[in-house]
Amino acid sequence: MLRCTGVAFLSLALSAPATAASLATTMVKQLNSAPTFTAEGVVEAIRGSVIAPQVPGSITALAVKVGDHVKAGQLLARIDTRMATQQAITNQAQVMAAQAQLSAARKEYERKNRLYEKQYISQAALERAESDYKTAEAQTKAQLAQTGLSDVQTGLHTINAPYAGVIAEVMTEVGGMAMPGQPLLAIYDPSEFRVTVNVPQSQLANLKAGASVEVQIPAAAEACRKLSSTHMTILPMVDPVSNMVQVRLTLPQRLTSLSPGMFARAMLPVEAVKGAGQILVPAKSVIRRSELVAIYVVDQQGRPQLRQVRLGRQQGENVEVFAGLNVGELVALDPIAAANFK
Predict the structure, then answer these.
(1) Which of 82, 83, 109, 293 is in Cβ range 3.0-4.6 Å of 129 for a Cys bridge?
(2) Which strands make up the sheet holding 177-178, listed edge to edge?
(3) How many structural domains comprise the chain?
(4) Per-residue confidence band for 159, with pLDDT thresholds at 50, 70 and 90
(5) Which of 269, 288, 317 is the endpoint of a domain?
(6) pLDDT given for residue 26 in this prediction
(7) Contacts for 48 with CB less than 8 Å, ≥ 6 apart
């Protein structure tokens, strides 16, 4: 029961009088169709990457900007290669020196081997020559490997697109310093999107697996504002603070008007309670004042009466009513006009 003082407070706060003819109402109906749980989230690209360099250096070229469409392998940025080039020249010189030492050690070993066969030198002298030869051979292989690594690092100074996509963000500029692991660009594939929504842990058991899910994206083009998803993935982790679970809904391919970060709303089918149906009323008809949650119910004489209700979750423009209303009753759509009814 509501206290009269609470009703008087609401009535005094609203001043414009209304008449029965101008009071807009709607009938409370029971929704017996398949129940849904409305969850809100965002649009995400299924394939998105943050590109960071593997070598340090100054950015000498930046070939793209935010919003550019790029092809797979297209040049995105180039890092200064002067130090890498000089290192490659140094390594190549060291390889040549190592190969010269190896050649000399091989010839010396072959000469000592012939002398040993004629018993002109001792076995110890032959073994020292063999050791020098194997050492020179190992040093040459190590130097060749170092040169190969230097060549690979030189190639890392050129950053190319890993796949065809759209440049979502550029975090550097020409002349900036690139460091390993520090992001330079972000790219995403615009051909495949999904919607990620947050669902309370308590609702997971009620979700219908394999059912088609209606997805609404208000900011998209007209043809993409209402979509259907047939693939739902529930992530096996719960946020310890909000007790929410992320649910991913795969969208149809080639939706050109979508972008990552767009607001989305998903109508998740849930298991119906046997013998029960949903009662929904327009959310704009609800009054919330401190701890008071109420709706103006219009009686048979056309007079609005304030009645306290217990609400469930909002679903789009409507809100579910758990208690306080009966099917067939009329509720005032404009609580301000109902409070000033004369």
Answers:
(1) 109
(2) 158-160, 75-79, 57-62, 177-178
(3) 4
(4) very high
(5) 269
(6) 81
(7) 168, 186, 187, 188, 189, 260
- Is the pLDDT at 65 greater than 80? The verdict is yes
Residues 171 and 291 in one domain: no
Predicted TM-score (pTM) of this structure: 0.60
Residues 6 or more apart whose CB falls under 8 angstroms from that of 91 comprise: 143, 146, 147, 150
* Range 93-98 contact pairs with CB under 8 angstroms and sequence separation of 24 or more: 94/143, 94/146, 94/147, 95/140, 95/143, 95/144, 95/147, 98/136, 98/139, 98/140, 98/143, 98/144
pLDDT at 261 over 90: yes
Residue 306's domain is classified under what CATH number? 2.40.420.20
Specify whether the CB–CB gap between 101 and 142 falls below 8 A: no
User: What is the average pLDDT score of the chain?
Assistant: 83
Question: In the predicted model, what is the mean pLDDT of residues 32-57?
Answer: 87
* Dihedral-angle region of residue 135 (phi above 0 means left; psi in -120 to 50 means alpha; beta otherwise): alpha
C-beta contacts of 202-205 below 8 A and 24+ residues apart: 202/243, 203/37, 203/268, 203/270, 204/234, 204/245
pLDDT value, residue 327: 82
